[in-house]
Write a structure and sequence with these properties.
38% of the residues lie in helices and 10% in strands. By secondary structure, it is an alpha/beta fold. The chain has a single domain (6-317), classed as NAD(P)-binding Rossmann-like Domain (Rossmann fold), CATH 3.40.50.720. Strands 3-2-1-4-5-6-7 form a 7-stranded parallel β-sheet, with helices on both faces. Helix 5 packs parallel to helix 7 (184-204). The structure holds hexanoyl-coenzyme A (HXC). Pfam families: adh_short_C2.
């Protein structure tokens, strides 16, 4: 069995087998969030084809995910960069050749780091735009005909034992709703992702493809939030502006996020199951924010100023926020 227990990646509310006979194609599928999304779908009956840049990491993730259900087919293909359309298209075609179809797509590959505009080279900005925005476009181009075919083949999703097909999800973020310091690159890139999905919803909805966005907030235990925390962003301060202790949330987590806690990968996996299930048969062009309400008050997330050493805007004016060291790549 996989090292992960089902309750870690899925709520106990979904019916077994609701994705039986369906195949999900996932970019960035070995990542913390996307692997949980994939795991949940496989647990509920789907087969999966995950791609990533790192060969070992992607293959190992596929082997582990396959353990959640006896008979699951999960392929993990490395050396596929969403910035390279040709390799992505080959991967999509291989998924169809080996697993039979592409019924669902998760565009999850993303790149991010923390930097002021002053600390960003044009190449650095472009790298994130290329991975997130162009990568999502490339993923759409490489899979949309397969999704259209799947939507046409599974046109009665409410029939007994007939899971839907032709569903697309992009994993985005909430940075661009308000703007967030040190995230100009990711904010711009994710705004582009949201916009692209709107266009897919409009242009392919008439063919039966439902395209939506999931926007996670701060998710505990992920590489992205580890980096934010290292830079002093993710540590939710337990003191108010006057240094007074804020009482802990009734849910035992962050007192400054409206829901009282950080997100979990399971929150995102559950949202994914919903959007791919028959229950979301008429949900198209939607942005499903799963962040406990955090974006509505930047005081709860990514608000520079929570770390006393990084009061906004002093750290910008002093130059302390520039020149973050590039961390060793995990790719
Ligand atoms: C400033 C940086 C930087 C940093 C990289 N660069 N890190 N600039 N601050 N911390 C610059 C480099 O100096 C270079 O520009 C340019 O970016 C490209 O870097 P390379 O490493 O050569 O490119 P590449 O291999 O394509 O790397 C892409 C990447 C990298 C995005 C820069 O971080 C990456 O591969 N990340 C993938 C994993 C990842 O980020 N996952 C997190 C997703 S989570 P110059 O001009 O110097 O050559 C997420 C949620 C939010 O998105 C989390 C918030 C942190």
């Amino acid at each position: 069995m996989s090292k992960q227990q089902p309750h870690e990646f899925i709520s106990p509310v979904w019916r077994d087998g609701i994705f039986r006979g369906r195949v999900v194609f996932v970019t960035g599928g070995a990542g913390d969030i996307c692997s949980a999304q994939t795991r949940a779908l496989v647990y509920l009956g789907a087969d999966a084809f995950i791609i990533g840049r790192n060969v070992e990491k992607t293959e190992a993730a596929a082997i582990d995910i396959a353990k959640v259900r006896k008979g699951a087919r999960v392929m993990g293909i490395g050396n596929v960069d969403v910035r390279n359309f040709e390799t992505l298209q080959k991967a999509a075609d291989r998924c169809v050749a080996e697993l039979g179809s592409i019924d669902f797509v998760i565009a999850g590959a993303a790149g991010n780091f923390i930097s002021t505009i002053a600390g960003l080279s044009p190449k650095a900005f472009k790298s994130v735009m290329d991975i997130d925005t162009i990568g999502t476009f490339n993923t759409i181009k490489a899979t949309i005909d397969h999704l259209s075919k799947s939507a046409a083949a599974h046109i009665s999703p409410n029939a007994e034992n007939s899971p839907p097909g032709g569903r697309f999800i992009a994993v985005s973020a909430t940075f661009h709703y308000t703007g967030v310091p040190l995230q100009s690159h990711a904010s711009a890139a994710k705004a582009g992702v949201d916009s692209l999905v709107s266009s897919v919803a409009l242009e392919y909805g008439p063919r039966g493809v439902m395209a939506n966005v999931i926007a996670p907030g701060p998710i505990e235990g992920t590489e992205g939030m580890d980096r934010l925390a290292r830079a002093g962003f993710g540590e939710i301060d337990t003191k108010d502006g006057k240094g007074q202790q804020i009482p802990p949330s009734v849910r035992g987590g962050s007192p400054t996020i409206p829901s009282g806690r950080w997100g979990t990968v399971r929150d995102i996996a559950d949202a994914t199951v919903y959007l791919f299930s028959a229950a979301a048969d008429n949900v198209n062009g939607h942005v499903l924010v799963v962040d406990g309400g955090a974006w509505r008050r930047q005081g709860g997330f990514l608000c520079v100023g929570q770390n006393p050493a990084m009061q906004y805007p002093n750290f910008l004016l002093s130059g302390a926020g520039s020149g973050q060291k590039k961390p060793a790549s995990k790719i």
